[in-house]
Amino acid sequence: MSNYSFGTCPYNKEHRIMLFRMPGHIVKCMKNYRGPPLQTCKYNAIHRVLDMEEHLKECEDYHKFTENNSFQMALSVRAQPIIYDEDAV
């Protein structure tokens, strides 16, 4: 038995793929997919889902990202955009 982790293809639930091969498989399988359009998760591109809001409640990658202290710090120190008043020039 292999030491690799397996996942299920989002386009065909009968496909079990080694996770390190999943990105390439998704590209191939997406071409033949005829169901409702799936959205790509911003936090893990191999996550393809119908309802992104529901997915983000369970997405481990999203939770890791938002719990990261550097993410919170970046939001707190982010500079406001500079808006130029063209009438003042």
UniProtKB/TrEMBL annotation:
It comes from the Eukaryota. Residues 6-33 form the CHHC U11-48K-type domain. SUPFAM superfamilies: beta-beta-alpha zinc fingers. GO terms for molecular function: zinc ion binding. The keyword Transcription regulation does not apply. InterPro entries: TRM13/UPF0224_CHHC_Znf_dom (IPR022776), Znf_C2H2_sf (IPR036236). Keywords: Metal-binding, Zinc, Zinc-finger. This is CHHC U11-48K-type domain-containing protein. It comes from Drosophila guanche (Fruit fly).
